[in-house]
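Possible regression after last week's pipeline update?

I re-ran a chain I had predicted before the update to compare outputs. Posting the input and the new output here so someone can diff against the archived version. Not blocking, just want to make sure nothing changed silently.
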Amino acid sequence: MNSRIVLMIIMFLSAPAVFAGSGPTPVPWDDLTPAEQAVLKPFADQWDELDPQRQRRLQKGARHWSTLKPEQRTLIRQRFKRWRQLSGEERAHIRQRYLHFLSLPPERRRTLREGYQRFHQLPPAKRQELRRHWRNMSPLQRREARGRYLQRRRQLHNSHDRPLRTRPVPRRFRLNPHNPRR
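New output (post-update):
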């Protein structure tokens, strides 16, 4: 069971690199490091039949997995377990929202990321209170609240000769110009 989870996580991590293979040359099993072989053990019997690009994606995922700290691996396992527990409909909805997010202008994406980061820096009790308040608002009240928030942000931005962003964007949220999916 544990090796299956690790395998699924590796496949999940390597998914964005669909076309990142360095060519159609297959990767022989014996060329993998012992650490990579240990992580990719479930693929050992079928390794030679796999598409070379998929071999490279899996190898890259195994290499990345071996560089992670135990806490990071645990977090990834938890997130992947949550993802697997979602229904197909919920997963499709999340993918659709992510694609919509990618279609937004960079400034809007940046604003959304900043709001997300600010929200998650709040104490858990305050976040719960805000969620409860938001759920109890009507759609009209929500639209009005968003408008007031954006207006305050614009006023703050215009009153100071500094950019809205005061902290650097975490690496995981930065856009990768070499990867069209990110």
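Follow-up from reviewer: compared with the archived run. The radius of gyration is 21 Å. Marking as no regression found.
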